[in-house]
UniProtKB/TrEMBL annotation:
It comes from Phytohabitans suffuscus. PANTHER family: HTH-TYPE TRANSCRIPTIONAL REGULATOR CMTR, TRANSCRIPTIONAL REGULATOR-RELATED. CDD domains: HTH_ARSR. Residues 1-96 form the HTH arsR-type domain. This is Transcriptional regulator.
Length: 118
C-alpha cells in the first residue's frame, strides 16, 4: 500500500475523532454495542445528532449497523479499534496531562485510562 493511501486512512480516522460527540460515541461503543436511542441518552444529545454522527462514523468505516428486527444496533467495525482508542487516549494523557478534563467531567472509562496512563 502506498504512503498516500496510509495517509488517507489516518486522515479518515482523524476526521472521525475531530468531533467530541463522535469521539464519545466511539468510546461508548468501545464498551458495548448499542442502539442509537440508548447512545443519545448516554451522551445527552438528540437522537438526530447521534444519527448524523453514526452516519459519519459508518462512512469512515469505524462502526457498522447490525439490524435487529425493527431496530438497528451499532458496534465498532473491528474490536481492535476499541484497544486502539484506549491506547491513543492513554498516550495523549501521558504526553499532555494538561489536556485532561477535570475529574468531575471524566466518565468512568476515561478515569480508568487516565489511571493506567498516570
Amino acid at each position: 500500500m502506498e504512503t498516500i493511501a496510509y495517509g488517507q486512512v489516518l486522515a479518515r480516522f482523524g476526521h472521525a475523532l475531530s468531533d467530541p460527540t463522535r469521539a464519545r460515541l466511539l468510546l461508548a461503543l468501545r464498551e458495548a454495542s448499542a442502539h442509537p436511542a440508548d447512545l443519545a441518552d448516554l451522551l445527552g444529545v438528540s437522537r438526530q445528532t447521534v444519527s448524523n454522527h453514526l452516519a459519519c462514523l459508518r462512512g469512515c468505516g469505524l462502526v457498522v449497523a447490525v439490524p435487529q428486527g425493527r431496530r438497528t444496533r451499532y458496534e465498532l467495525a473491528d474490536q481492535r479499534l476499541g484497544h486502539a482508542l484506549g491506547d491513543l487516549l492513554s498516550l495523549v494523557l501521558t504526553v499532555d496531562p494538561a489536556c485532561a478534563p477535570g475529574e468531575a467531567d471524566l466518565d468512568v472509562d476515561t478515569r480508568e485510562v487516565r489511571e493506567v496512563a498516570g
